[in-house]
Amino acid sequence: MRLFRDQLPRRVKVFSSLLSVLLLISAIFVFVLNDMKKSILIPVNKIVSTGARVIVIRIPKQNDMISEDITVYDANMSPPYLVTRMLSVDLTPKNELPTISKISLTESQWRAIDAIRQSWCKFPPIRHEKMKEAYLYTIGVRCPLRENLFNSILLEIPYDTLPNELNELIQHVPPIQ
Question: 153, 83, 147: which is closest to 119 by C-alpha?
Fold first, then answer.
């Protein structure tokens, strides 16, 4: 019994040291996990399913650049016909806002883009298996089902078949600096 009592303080110290190490490891894990969540690439069909977004075009990364998303918002937004461009992955430090480029389309530009969206909702383009990922735009499209209900679809469109209106939109929205 006396042997156990003599070892008790040492065992408590070992246990307390192990507990401290485990707490430190779990704290590091939580911080790393929070930073990783910010850098996860969210699929564009998930992005378009929230808020007033109707089209999200992911511009493939070129060289070592991070890909960018161009988002077209519903015409009923304020301001109307809003389009934004931002990095696909949020790399901004905490307590800072991400860098976003914004433009407003004219009503006729927005209608032309919305007509493409509605067409894709009815007849989604088929991806050819031969196409390499580097040559594709990944596009999320919000499609109405019935009043207040929608479905989001994921499209992969080759560079050379992207409609002119969307090519012009990509050129028109200033890139992120």
Answer: 153
* 45-96 residue pLDDT tens: 788 777 788 999 988 776 667 788 899 998 887 788 899 888 877 666 666 6
The CA distance from 71 to 76, in Å, is 15
List the one residue out of 158, 102, 100 whose CA is nearest residue 125.
158
Q: Residue 112: in which H helix or E strand, if any?
A: helix 107-122
- DSSP state letters, 24-93: HHHHHHHHHHHHHHHT----HHHHTTSTTEEEEEEEPP-TTPPPEEEEEEPTTSSSTTEEEEEESS--PP
